[in-house]
Specification:
Strand order of the largest sheet: 1-2
Helix content: over 70%
Largest sheet: 2 strands, antiparallel
Structural class: mainly alpha
Length: 292
């Protein structure tokens, strides 16, 4: 018994040794900055005392009293409500389509996946050219007999324009997870549905969708977190404008920290953003668990 316990102890130490670098990186890159952000959010810089002083909850109070911050929260929530269903639904439909045994499906799948290899900053530059007054988007609209649109400079069009850009970036990535889930569906289940006379739409709704709920739930949660942390396209294309209509929370954090130089209020905003993200994700998990 003792030799078996010693063997298990050695195996545990070996496993811990292999995990140590990852755990160290997790602590240095995630846990320590998170604790630092929470601590710094309770301080402020004092010109009279020549350094930082404990401010309690005043930074949070200043944020909640700020009209710009409240607008940023509203824009972020609206953006999340719009972009998440679009990306998840389109990713699922494309995954279903590209798992069919049809000519050219692999080629089209590759084309949809290609934007994954492009960094978000580069994608933003590409779409800045597309959205120009004389760019590709207005060229297509002109062919359709529609007048040129302002896109990124219009308060009403800037958010939908960003949604199109971010969907172009993200749909292919999330589609890969759903394709993997669909390929795990037993072939005999599909054949049984086909023998029962179920059409393509009925098979997708009644067979495929219920059997890929786990990867679909993962995609929903991960996509939500990803979209709540969008930064590069906003910083490159809109700077939060026009009139704050694209001022997502992540960009607002950057603006407060580096443009306004108020690092402690920015840290408080980071804490609020993380809390908001956790609340939304927890709500999604609760709804998904309730559906099961």
């Amino acid at each position: 018994m003792s030799s078996r316990q010693e063997r298990k102890g050695r195996q545990g130490l070996i496993a811990l040794a292999f995990l140590a670098p990852a755990l160290l990186c997790l602590a240095v890159l995630r846990i320590v900055p998170a604790i630092s952000a929470v601590v710094e959010s309770f301080y402020s810089e004092s010109l009279l005392r020549g350094g930082r002083v404990f401010a309690g909850l005043s930074n949070y109070g200043d944020l909640l009293a700020s009209k710009d911050f409240r607008q940023s929260v509203g824009v972020t929530l609206l953006f999340t409500v719009l972009v998440n269903p679009i990306q998840v639904v389109v990713s699922f439909l494309l995954a279903v389509l590209f798992t069919q045994k049809a000519a050219g499906s692999r080629l089209w799948r590759t084309l949809v996946i290609l934007p994954i290899a492009t960094p978000p900053a580069v994608s933003a530059v590409i779409w800045s050219v597309i959205y120009r007054p004389d760019g590709l988007a207005n060229g297509v609209l002109d062919r359709l007999g529609i007048s040129a649109q302002p896109f990124l400079t219009s308060p009403g069009q800037v958010l939908p324009s960003l949604i199109v850009l971010l969907s172009w970036i993200g749909v292919g990535y999330w589609m890969l997870f759903l394709i993997a889930g669909i390929q795990e569906v037993p072939e005999e289940v599909r054949e049984a549905a086909l023998l029962d006379g179920a059409g393509a739409w009925r098979r997708m709704i009644s067979v495929t969708l219920p059997l890929v709920r786990r990867p679909l739930a993962f995609v929903l949660v991960a996509d939500t977190v990803s979209n709540l942390l969008v930064f590069a396209p906003v910083q490159i294309l809109t700077k939060g404008g026009p009139n704050g209509n694209s001022n997502l929370l992540m960009y607002d954090v950057y603006n407060r920290a580096y443009a306004l130089g108020d690092i402690h209020v920015a840290q408080a905003e980071v804490v609020i953003l993380v809390a908001l993200t956790l609340a939304i994700v927890a709500g999604q998990f609760r709804l998904l668990r309730g559906d099961q």
